[in-house]
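Section 3.1: Structural characterization of target chains.
Under the original work plan, the team committed to producing a structural model for every single-chain target entering the pipeline before any wet-lab resources were allocated. The record below documents one such target. The sequence was received from the expression subgroup and is listed exactly as submitted; it comprises 309 residues.
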Amino acid sequence: MKFTKQAIALAILSASTFGVNAATVELYGKANLTLQSSDEGDGSFTEVKSNASRIGLKGTHDLGNGLSVVYKAEFQVDMDGDSDKGDSITDRNQYVGLKGDFGEVLIGKNDTVTKQSQGKVDLFSDLNADIKVLWKGENRMSDSVTYKSPKFSGFQFGMTYIAEDSVDGDDAISAAVTYGDKGLKKSKLFASVAVDSEVKGYDVVRATVQGKLQGFTLGAMVQTQEAVDSGTETDGFLVSAKYGLTKAVALKAQVQTANTDGGDDKSGFTLGADYKLAKSTKAFAYYTTFDMDSGADEDYLAVGLEYKF
């Protein structure tokens, strides 16, 4: 851990030197903390929680002839001070690659293209209502190589190969086709279809769509996942909606289900609101409840602050 902290500090202090070597470098991050009442089945308690707060460096280096190096080194930082195992700083996406007319190839640790294919349909990503609570497929994989094609009439193909990394291991593949802009700034519609094959022990098929309609941002996702070893299958859907009440206030709602063979049904429902204080900063609140057939029900009521730089 000491080495990791020193490496981060050295990278940040060295960032200014990249600019004079025909490279670009950006220091960025996000602080997201909530004060919340949490009930995970044994009674409610109050906590301050850091929600995937992070810091990182990313940039490009023009090699000429339309070819560039791209890189990222991102770290999660637990800002609530609860870490007592030396893991207050952990790895997120970290890679280096090449970008050109052929598309983009990245090697290192990265979100699979299936995870990326959700776009921004999950309105409560990184919070207690994140879709990874009920579904598989939200994977950030080490030992991976990701290729993304150029866009053709709004369509783009992507594939992630995950190396087995050991004699007894198995390699895996994630593939996706997307259409449009996930931020819905360059297009009014985003859609994707993605497939995982043996990624972390699961086969996954996922379809996503999101668009804008009369002031609403509406999204939907359907997923089927199957455990490779047992063959147990789970089907589910997600529906999300966001409405801009004013330029500063947005109301949000999301429903997610997961129905497993054998009658194990789970569902989650979340209501929330964002208040934009500036382009970089928002205050927010949300309430999440999970109904779990085979486990304890969960409830979360939170207020928080997010700052991006």
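The chain is about 5% helix and 60% strand.
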